[in-house]
Design a protein that fits this description.
- There is one protein chain.
- By secondary structure, the protein is α+β, with helices and mostly antiparallel strands.
- The protein folds into 2 domains: about 50 residues, lambda repressor-like DNA-binding domains (434 Repressor (Amino-terminal Domain)), CATH 1.10.260; about 70 residues.
Length: about 150
């Protein structure tokens, strides 16, 4: 369910009319109705005001979306500095997918030489070392004894 339906359900659960909530928020009854029904653009401040009137908090959270993310500029610079240090005969590929990985994960880069290749993960900001280690271990398990890409 969405924020709008949560607010409407909470309002009804409190036994309040839209006019009651509107008075508490400094809004009209029709504005509260439009917020609950989604027939108008609503600001976070308006959601928070209605939520406060029905004893709720509104919290904003971001979740990963489908598709490829825009790469972090710092990470791109780090990978480019590494690439510039490599011998010109070595191959270089960024966003190299893990073979057979249904989740479509990828190494940040793969360096290739004759008869070998090396997967590269570039981290510019490490906030949770354990989470990073788990993510890398999962990639290594997915790859197993196969080559990294």
């Amino acid at each position: 369910m969405g924020v709008r339906s949560d607010l409407g359900r909470a309002r009804r659960g409190c036994g309040l009319s839209r006019a009651d909530v509107g008075r508490a928020c400094g809004m009209s009854r029709s504005m509260v109705e439009r917020i609950e029904s989604g027939t108008r653009g609503t600001t976070l401040r308006e959601y928070a005001a209605v939520a406060a009137a029905v004893a709720m908090d509104v919290r904003l959270r971001a979740y990963p979306a489908a598709g490829d993310p825009i790469r972090d500029a710092g990470q791109q610079r780090l990978l480019e500095r590494l690439r510039l240090r490599l011998h010109r005969d070595l191959g270089w590929r960024t966003e190299a997918p893990l073979v057979g990985d249904l989740e479509q994960r990828a190494w940040d880069a793969v360096i290739r030489g004759e008869g070998w290749q090396l997967a590269v993960e570039a981290e510019t900001v490490i906030e949770d070392v354990q989470a990073l280690e788990r993510r890398l271990a999962l990639k290594r398990r997915t790859v197993g004894s196969h080559t990294p890409c």
